[in-house]
């Protein structure tokens, strides 16, 4: 169902985790978007962790079976007097791409967002579902059965 994940995105994510990334003079942690993907009956489910992201800051696109999820985690306004003592929560715009197989009905994706978790449910296409083929016809129509 899921063809593969974008390899460069995975390399960039690893590099950010190992080396960090400069952010306004300090070093921040990577802006990862962890995901799980699994088949559940007649649908394929992809779940993304997006803690601290507002629902209106999520953008989901699909083009030619490439699913792109973009999200923006905005910094919290602490006021003018606040001085940061620890900044580990990344903010900014980040995205994730996944290549979906042809067996999915990408015209009927359902997206829900609750408690910082984005869930995409994609139905399995009818043409990809297993089906029973019946054998018909008669032996007298030009084909003879061999006697044992």
Provide an overview of this structure.
The chain is built from one helix and ten strands. It has a four-stranded antiparallel β-sheet. Mean pLDDT is 80; it is low at 22-30. The protein has one helix at 7-19, and strands at 2-5, 21-23, 26-28, 35-40, 43-49, 58-63, 66-73, 92-100, 110-114, 117-123. A hairpin with a 2-residue loop joins strand 2 (21-23) and strand 3 (26-28). It has one domain: Immunoglobulin-like, CATH 2.60.40.790. The chain is mainly beta and 148 residues long. It is elongated. This is SHSP domain-containing protein. InterPro entries: A-crystallin/Hsp20_dom, HSP20-like_chaperone, Small_HSP.
Nutshell version of this structure?
This protein has 148 residues and is mainly beta. The protein is 9% helix and 39% strand.
Layout of helices and strands, plus pairs?
Elements (H helix, E strand, L loop, with lengths): L1 E4 L1 H13 L1 E3 L2 E3 L6 E6 L2 E7 L8 E6 L2 E8 L18 E9 L9 E5 L2 E7 L25
Antiparallel strand pairs: 1-8, 2-3, 4-5, 5-10, 6-7, 7-8, 9-10
Taking pLDDT < 50 over at least 5 consecutive residues as the criterion, the unreliable ranges are 22-30
Radius of gyration: 24 Å
Give average pLDDT, whole number: 80
The coarse overall form would be elongated
Structural class: mainly beta
Summed up, the helix count is 1
**Name of the top-level CATH class:** Mainly Beta
